[in-house]
Amino acid sequence: MEGNTPEVLCVTPQRKRTWVPASVTNLYSTKRRRVSFAPADLGKEVKPSPAQSIIHSEEQADRFISARPHVTLPLNITPRTQRIARGFGLIDDKLLRYSAPGASSSHQPVSDQLRVSFSTLLQKAAKVSPTSAAGNLGKRKQFTLALDGPGIPSDPFAYPLTWSKKNVIAVACGKDVYYQDLSDRRIVHLCKIDKVCNGKTTSVEWSPTSPSIIALGTTTGSVQLWDAEMKSCIRTWRDLDWDPVGGLNWHQSQDLLTVGADNGMVRFYDVRQPDAVATLTRHKSKVHGVRWNYDGNYLATSDQQGVVYIWDARASKTLDNDRMMGGRVRHGAPVKALAWCPWQSDLLATGSTYPDGKLRIFSVKSTNPIPMPRHTIPLHTAVTSIHWSPHCKEIATTHGTSWNPNAPTTGRMVSCPSQLSNSLTVHTYPSFRRVVSVQAHAGAVGHSCLSPDGTDIFTICPAEEAMKMWHVWSTAKEKKRESAFDKFSIR
């Protein structure tokens, strides 16, 4: 039977694998399985597919959500990959920001950006007027002439410098007075006053109607008239109170000299009369500034208390009709700098010293009983003189010491150097944008004067005992009218 027994194959039965809870480490684990990627060089730029390059040729971004990043790898899929990418600087903490700081806005097409860049190349620079200080003093911030002045008065309220219509400059040096003709640079000693009776010369002023006549004001209150051509004294007026002379100024069309004094008096002298012809007694302190406007109708005077009076020469009284507060302008510090506008005769510029340090513009045509300033420019620097340009709408100021307006008030000035310290500065009118500012001297600019043609300014510094001439403006070129006969010739 063994031979007939069939051969039986033993096959191991395969059991179906069933799920057994014990085979899982944690039945309720929420830990996600890590996803591994193929090794990739993150430093290389990942090139998009051709289809992507066609569809996304320009980035498009919403107003609040920026465009998607250029990296196609999912660097922020897990916290671990976020930490790694942040460590390598591939992403930052600002989720809605994919561009670098200062990058251009992604919502603006590249074509628009190129169009804007090309348009800036075609733009022309703003044309500078040839008469402006920007085209003269702004280009060459150097003085054109320097002179020595030994013995210049150290008083910051003195007027030791003047410029005549004949282009002759005179300077007071102690008890001596010199002048120089700038045409041939010849220096002449005019006079030496008697120190015992007349003291020292503090103020000088050439006559506009007789350019060879010069007025001298002294520390003892005497006023002298000298003829520069004859080198002789032609008139002397003495003050019985011996009060020093403040400002001097001639009337533009008459032989009338206006003199301010330390006792608050303003006197008027006629060259033909031996005594004063009129007197103003409104000021209560030292008169530092005296200035007639260009048509000779208005007179401005200023004093130590910062009070500025405007007088109507046609009515011989103040503009207030003798009311107490009318026609009076008040600064918070002594005022020496006064200047009338040559192309608008009703405008008056005033400048004050410490602790006010402001430049103000007034109009005599104001209907208010108390004139209010049209413009007030705080400079926090002592303003020593002011000049309007006769050729353009600009105004020049000279300055002394600067200070910090936020410093505690102690009654004593603490200097704080600034760009305006000891400078010659030019502003535009009426915007008062600063055109140019140059440091004129190493010390405070005591006084300055304008040339007869209104283009140059001479500054003087008592600390340096020096004077400097600056080319600030230029005269407007006259346009020659062309004629047909200039272009063509007749045969």
From TrEMBL:
Q: Which UniProt key words apply to this protein?
A: Repeat, WD repeat
Concerning SUPFAM superfamilies, the annotation shows:
WD40 repeat-like
Q: Which GO terms describe its molecular function?
A: anaphase-promoting complex binding; ubiquitin ligase activator activity
One Pfam annotation reads WD40_CDC20-Fz
Coiled coil start-end: none
**What residue intervals traverse the membrane?**
none
- WD repeat segments run 280-321
A single Gene Ontology CC annotation of this entry is: anaphase-promoting complex
Q: Where is the CDC20/Fizzy WD40 domain?
A: 147-470
What is a biological process (GO) this protein takes part in?
A: positive regulation of anaphase-promoting complex-dependent catabolic process
Q: Does the keyword Repeat apply?
A: yes
User: Which N-terminal residues, if any, form the signal peptide?
Assistant: none
Q: Which domain of life is it from?
A: Eukaryota
**UniProt cross-references to PANTHER family, sorted A to Z:** CELL DIVISION CYCLE 20 CDC20 FIZZY -RELATED, MEIOSIS-SPECIFIC APC_C ACTIVATOR PROTEIN AMA1
The entry sums up its family as follows:
Belongs to the WD repeat CDC20/Fizzy family.
Q: Under what name is this protein listed?
A: CDC20/Fizzy WD40 domain-containing protein
Q: Source species, please?
A: Hermanssonia centrifuga
